From TrEMBL:
EC category name: oxidoreductase
GO MF assignments: 12-oxophytodienoate reductase activity; FMN binding
Domain NADH:flavin oxidoreductase/NADH oxidase N-terminal: 58-383
Source species of the chain: Buddleja alternifolia
CDD domains, alphabetized: OYE_like_FMN (cd02933)
Domain of life: Eukaryota
Record-linked InterPro entries: Aldolase_TIM, OxRdtase_FMN_N, Oye-like
Mitochondrion is among the record's keywords: no
Reactions performed catalytically: (1S,2S)-OPC-8 + NADP(+) = (9S,13S,15Z)-12-oxophyto-10,15-dienoate + NADPH + H(+)
Protein name (Swiss-Prot/TrEMBL): 12-oxophytodienoate reductase
């Protein structure tokens, strides 16, 4: 086995496959679909999990704090640019409810905490009364299907341009070093380094956003500490060039993130707070010279706040389907509550990650975007719809958004 820490006790505790989450299927139908899908895919079905009598690790229940999840398949946060003028729209109710299952965890797309938090067109906000009211029917639609719904709260920092900022001002950041203009086809504007005395107001924006999210009905929030945005601009040593107590040492670079965690947990309770981190990625030129140390430091520091979950993005996942990744393992072992792994997962890799206790839950981005019934397809080992990159960020309220077919329609 790969890591010497493989824990198959997870597997032995797994309840029978067809017990909880989905409508009970005729076993013969399920067997038929599995056989057909293996033919369709020109491969044998997922080696370890072919028998009807075997539990599918991703389809097993899990208790995350007070939340009783019926399976381990999480909708990763996905920006879709369909919240016109930052206001969540009715079509999002259909989109999210299509992906909701009873006891399934959904993380809503990155949502701005303030008017300086913006860097892309038509991303949702949660800083005005209008935003809160607009989210309510979307949250209701998910709850009606029994889903558990967290909102990812976000500030882009320097990943922005003057056009997105109030009064055309410079975007704010930990630094005044900009992203290379032209990266990803955008003329990023040079940021303005936040003064130390301005930092408490930004932390307060996250606190208020969390309060607003709860008022809108969300079950909790995920603090977006990943993918090169404001929090990560503080965390990573190749971006953060501050000389005050928010820069330099690991402890100092993590201070801003941890002060946000503290403010948000004080506001809504630690049992409603998760955080997403990506120490290994280089998105938006946000790089750290020692990502192992950064992940581990954060995991240990987060334990003090007893937050609900830590959601970590893998370095690019490669290798065979039956391999479990390993890079996040020290962080996973250090963090005492729920651990979610994301990026590059498919059914086989997800099952491995759960079976080998590498993660408690696995978040799926592109596969869930294109397969509204992803948990059911994984249950049946059914073929998947392919995602269409061209419509990831387009603004149509239906095309590439709510029109991906369900299994019955495929
Ligand atoms: C269309 C799209 C939008 C995304 N938006 C967000 C986002 O709002 N917040 C975030 O943390 N990650 C975002 N991501 C990253 C995904 O959550 C996920 O980490 C990534 O897609 C890799 O996982 P996958 O291989 O399962 O797709 C986005 C990815 C895609 C493809």
């Amino acid at each position: 086995m790969l890591f010497g820490v493989v824990n198959y006790s997870v597997v032995s505790k797994i309840v029978p496959l067809f017990s909880v989450p989905y409508k009970i299927q005729e076993k013969s139908t399920i067997r038929f679909i599995r056989v057909m899908s293996s033919i369709h895919n020109n491969r044998s079905t997922d080696n370890a999990y072919t028998s009807d009598d075997d539990p599918i690790p991703l389809l097993t229940p899990y208790k995350m704090g007070d939340f009783h999840l019926s399976h381990r398949i999480v909708l990763a946060p996905l920006t879709r640019n369909r919240s016109y003028n930052n206001v969540p729209q009715p079509h999002a109710a259909l989109y999210y409810s299509q992906r909701a299952t009873k006891g399934g965890l959904l993380i809503a797309e990155a949502t701005g905490v303030s008017d300086t938090a913006q860097g892309y067109p038509d991303t949702p906000g949660i800083w005005t009364k209008e935003h809160v009211e607009a989210w309510k029917p979307i949250v209701d639609a998910v709850h009606q299907k029994g889903g558990i719904f967290f909102l990812q709260i976000w500030h882009v920092g320097r990943v922005s341009t003057y056009d997105f900022q109030p009064n055309g001002e410079a975007p704010i950041s930990a630094t005044d070093k900009g992203i290379t203009p032209g990266l990803d086809g955008v003329e990023w504007s040079p940021p303005r380094r936040l003064r130390k005395d301005e930092i408490p107001a930004i932390i307060n924006d996250f606190r208020l956003a969390a309060r607003n999210a709860i008022e809108a009905g969300f079950d909790g929030v995920e603090i977006h500490g990943a993918n090169g945005y404001l929090i990560e601009q503080f965390l990573k040593d190749q971006v953060n060039d501050r000389t005050d107590e928010y820069g330099g040492s690991l402890e100092n670079r993590c201070r801003f993130a941890l002060e946000i965690v503290e403010a948000v947990t004080n506001e809504i309770g630690s049992n409603r707070v998760g955080i997403r981190l990506s120490p290994y990625t280089d998105f938006m030129e946000s790089i750290d010279s020692n990502p192992d140390a950064l992940g581990l430091y954060m995991a240990n520091a987060l334990n003090k706040f007893n937050i609900l979950y830590l959601h970590m993005i893998e370095p690019r996942l490669e290798g065979a389907d039956d391999e479990t990744p390993h890079r996040l393992l020290p962080t996973r072992k250090a963090f005492k509550n729920t651990f979610i792994a994301a990026s590059g997962y498919n059914r086989s890799k997800g099952n491995r990650a759960i079976a080998e206790n590498y993660a408690d839950l696995v978040a799926f981005g592109r596969l869930f975007l294109a397969n509204p019934d992803l948990p059911r397809r994984f249950e049946l080992d059914a073929p998947l719809n392919k995602y269409d990159r061209n419509t990831f960020y387009s603004s149509d309220p239906i095309v590439g958004y709510t029109d991906y077919p369900f299994l019955e329609e495929a």
